[in-house]
Amino acid sequence: MSSMAPIGVFDSGIGGTTVVKELMKSLPNEKIVYFGDTARVPYGNKSKETIIMYSRQIADFLISQGVKAIVIACNTASALALETLRHELKVPIIGVVKPGAKAAAEATENNRIGVIATRATINSGIYEEFLHKTDPKIKIFKKACPLFVPLVEEGWISDDITRQIIHRYLDELLEKDIDALILGCTHYPLLAEEIAKVAGKKIKLVNPAFECAREFRYMLEENDLLCEEKQDPVHEFYVSDGPRAFAELAGSFLGEGIVGPDEVKIRNFEQR
Ligand code: DGL
Predict the structure, then answer these.
(1) pLDDT at site 144
(2) Taking a C-beta distance cutoff of 8 angstroms, is the pair 6, 65 a contact?
(3) Strand ranges inside 37-161, DSSP E
(4) pLDDT in tens, 19-42
(5) Atom of ligand 1 nearest to the CA of 186
(6) What pLDDT score was predicted for residue 261?
(7) Which of 76, 91, 148, 263 is most buried, judged by most C-beta within 10 A?
(8) Which of 78, 187, 206 to mutate to test the pocket of ligand 1 (most atoms within 8 A of CB)?
(9) Which of 74, 145, 212, 227 is catalytic?
(10) Would you say 247 and 260 are in contact if contact means Cβ atoms under 8 Å apart?
């Protein structure tokens, strides 16, 4: 496999663009092929079997586009499908959960960490597993926040309703004296500003995307797949539905010239 090949990134929707942003910063030469499964979002309330099936279809599609490695830019798919895909695929693959747990363990000073994520990620217990591997003394307080995903997909980032929902989900968790809060769903960093206002200054918000981008870089280096040639890659974006809505939101989040309004392509598995 050539180091000039693109990298594949996927999520259930727009959330994975928070990881794309970090990948673009730490790996500026790498061309990204992104897939957002907007026809089937949310993943967070689906079964493990369904999430594995969807993830497998997307990974196969990305591989058909010639990617040399894959980032699962979705906590839910990382929690439930990463191990299966790692065994099945011939290209290296990484998820966001392990890097997120590592970043949170480094961020906490009082060993009290909050985790917010989809129901599927919370119920999988995967954040506890990784955090307790780092330090069994860490106390974890968790809360599923399923309504955050549709709010983000709808683009209601700074909105009264969004603020009310953030309070409804977080107020109880914020009484637990946590000093770090893992944004354990890649959609949530898009709400980080509003979440930070509710959480207050004493709580560090942990976005797993930073550490994930760093670890992905190591993985490429280890596999001799890092693109060292200076270039200005033109990224490709695919969704399974609603390309214009995706382009609008992703375009405003990723910055000018990254996702054009007519440049998001459709790939719908159910029509095959
Ligand atoms: N952005 C995803 C995650 O990190 C999935 C959200 C969803 O589809 O429910 O978990």
Answers:
(1) 98
(2) yes
(3) 69-72, 93-94, 112-117, 139-144
(4) 999 999 999 999 999 999 999 999
(5) 4
(6) 80
(7) 76
(8) 187
(9) 74
(10) yes
